[in-house]
Sequence to fold (640 residues):
Amino acid sequence: MAVYTEVPDDDLARFVADYDLGEVVSYKGIAEGVENSNYVLKTETGSYILTLYERRVNPADLPFFLGLMDHLAAKAIPCPTPIKARDGKALRELAGRPAAIISFLDGVWPRRITPQHCAELGEAMARFHVAGTGFALSRHNALSVASWRPLLAACASRAHEVKPGLAAMLAPELDWIEREWPTGLPTGVIHADLFPDNVFFRGERLTGMIDFYFACNDILAYDLAIGLNAWCFEADRTFNVTKARRLLAGYRRVRDLVPAEVASLVRLARGSAMRFLLTRLYDWLNTPPDALVRRKDPLEYVEKLRFHQGVKSAADYGFE
Amino acid sequence: MAVYTEVPDDDLARFVADYDLGEVVSYKGIAEGVENSNYVLKTETGSYILTLYERRVNPADLPFFLGLMDHLAAKAIPCPTPIKARDGKALRELAGRPAAIISFLDGVWPRRITPQHCAELGEAMARFHVAGTGFALSRHNALSVASWRPLLAACASRAHEVKPGLAAMLAPELDWIEREWPTGLPTGVIHADLFPDNVFFRGERLTGMIDFYFACNDILAYDLAIGLNAWCFEADRTFNVTKARRLLAGYRRVRDLVPAEVASLVRLARGSAMRFLLTRLYDWLNTPPDALVRRKDPLEYVEKLRFHQGVKSAADYGFE
Fold:
């Protein structure tokens, strides 16, 4: 829930005049997304999303993000397309911030997830992974396994404010994850944040994936592990194996997993639970109480982590 | 900046199915407005605004607000039209809240106000006042002069947190306003909250007035006094008499002021400055620090009030 930068209407009019989009008809700040300022922009030619990149996004990464969307859209992956101004550039500046206009995707993100949503997600994720192989740029995953120890260290002294004994529970788990972290698995461009609010549907048909601002090069199956955590637990935090089975099966219809990926799935799931637990914990402890962002509960991921600690093999995720 | 109620997508689909609007194509929470939850709703037939009325709006007032929009739109006042479902009703329920779909108005609210904006505003406000005369319902202004003393009483003990000596400055001013408050002036339906973010333009042409949720029956010229405060001060809080002159002249092109209204303008301006000062002060002192609402600075209205205290007559507002 965020609009960090107010865009003056006359500045916007000048900005949009550099595109072949006609005049601005309306623009309204969107209350979704926590990293950037987003507007629904209506011009004489249609609806678009205007994004102003705020300080949590490294400007040096923007050519990767925008280039990836361009690359994927050209391969018919349902994702936003950056709109180029008349000078051929999609990445520009507005109100003192890097800014881009991207295409508006129809569809709504699902508040109540069905197994069919998960099947569609799996298939789209696999298509994304396959389509990403030809992309020329690469980006290191700044939030992968190497980053978790410093994150934990930054939170450890205050983790008890969220849950007594939390740091003591996380320390041996992180030791285990670091020791067991798989190597040699297929890598490529992953989305790394395919949560339900980043995936649009009409009915149960997937119409779009958005928010590529965590995309990076990493283990492909790690994306799948993030998906298991984000899509296959119920509101009461129980694991829904039917949803997981459909997610995995959907993925494998497009790209099958090699045996080493299957064997690593539990470790990847524990790792991705740790990643979201730690970033949520950090944000929880460090978001000023008057911030305009609703903090996400780190404890949700403590429970997910506990679940994965009890998992024996990928069969427990419905892998067949 | 606010979306208080998350609307599940399947609930929304069922809700929209009761209208002749086709299927939901997308919906996004808007980061504007502080009283209600608002969404840009796109369906197969076009764009709309979906509003869920939150607890600060009295449900008993909703027939007045929606009926007024209907009445005004029928008289060609540029304002949103409530969309009726197939049962003929515009006021319905969604996610446990009263809810309505209203038409989407093109245009953007001006961040940098020009004298021409003020002229357009004056004219549109007068047309609104004239068109409101035939409206059958009425609503008492719960935030008029009688409410200011209890509001001040509720803030007095902590007003010094905002500015030392503030309560001592406001007490005699309120005495004066109460004693001098005009009677016998023309009354009717007023908007009562025509701030720049509630008025849309394309270029300098006014295309819409929105947010009727403070509309009520009161002194017509009080609306004009609110406009002077909201539109005719610069960011450095100096008064721009050119803007005021254009606002008043624009208004009078449609509806001229009677002498008693002209003679009362200073008192109405001091009163309206007091009204926004007090509600902002109250919200400032009573908004939880973790609220998702950006609080508005009450001190802005202290300075405006000071300006009006030095005004001798309507001529100082550019009245000719």
Observations:
- Chain A touches chain B at residues 1-3, 6-10, 12, 23-32, 40, 42, 47, 104-112, 200-202, 289-290, 292, 294 (CB under 8 Å).
- DSSP finds nine helices and nine strands in chain A.
- Chain A has two domains: 9-103, 115-317.
